[in-house]
Design a protein that fits this description.
Layout: H1 2-29, H2 36-58, H3 64-88, H4 96-99, H5 108-117, E1 129-130, E2 133-134, H6 135-163
Helix pairs in contact: 1-2, 2-3, 3-6
């Protein structure tokens, strides 16, 4: 357990790099375009990569703040991941620019503007599936694992600091 605790930040960093790399490869090489909710979910991984890099290069020790920042990022990512799964399962509504719904209007110009500004990819459409799970569902599972273990490590590091 001590080995995992010591390298937990690195594990989260590596999994974040793999997640972002997978998304970018799917988008750029397999033309699986992301919806707006997919893009929101990526911010978590970008943030974790940046914050880990900053702590790694400037603070080469286990630091409670790194885990707290990761925790905040994971909560953000979990919020958007769960929301996206809810949209895919038709349980929740997404933002108007994500669901493909046009607002009622009496103006042809307003309608034209809505159509031109609307996202091409509908958030309720599942673009790809692995083992019967959508990308958003896989992201929920990964975020829950991050949240669970990261919370354990926050308490563990905090308790160790309190003892010393």
């Amino acid at each position: 357990m001590n080995y995992i605790t010591r390298y937990w930040g690195s594990v989260v960093f590596i999994l974040s790099v793999i997640a972002i790399s997978s998304a970018l490869v799917a988008e750029n090489f397999f033309n699986i375009l992301p919806c707006k909710m997919c893009l929101y979910q990526r911010y978590t991984y970008y943030f974790i990569i940046v914050i880990f890099s900053i702590f790694y290069f400037f603070k080469k020790t286990l630091n409670l703040w790194l885990y707290i920042f990761i925790e905040i990022a994971v909560l953000y990512g979990l919020f958007y991941s769960i929301w996206h799964v809810g949209i895919e399962q038709k349980l929740l509504k997404g933002p108007l620019d994500c669901t493909g719904i046009l607002k009622k209007t009496n103006s042809a110009e307003n309608l034209k503007e809505q159509i031109l500004n609307q996202e091409i990819i509908n958030c309720s459409d599942i673009s790809w599936v692995i083992f019967g799970l959508s990308g958003a569902t896989i992201n929920v599972i990964l975020m829950l694992l991050f949240l669970f273990f990261n919370t354990i490590f926050i308490f563990k590091i905090y308790n160790e600091k309190e003892k010393s």
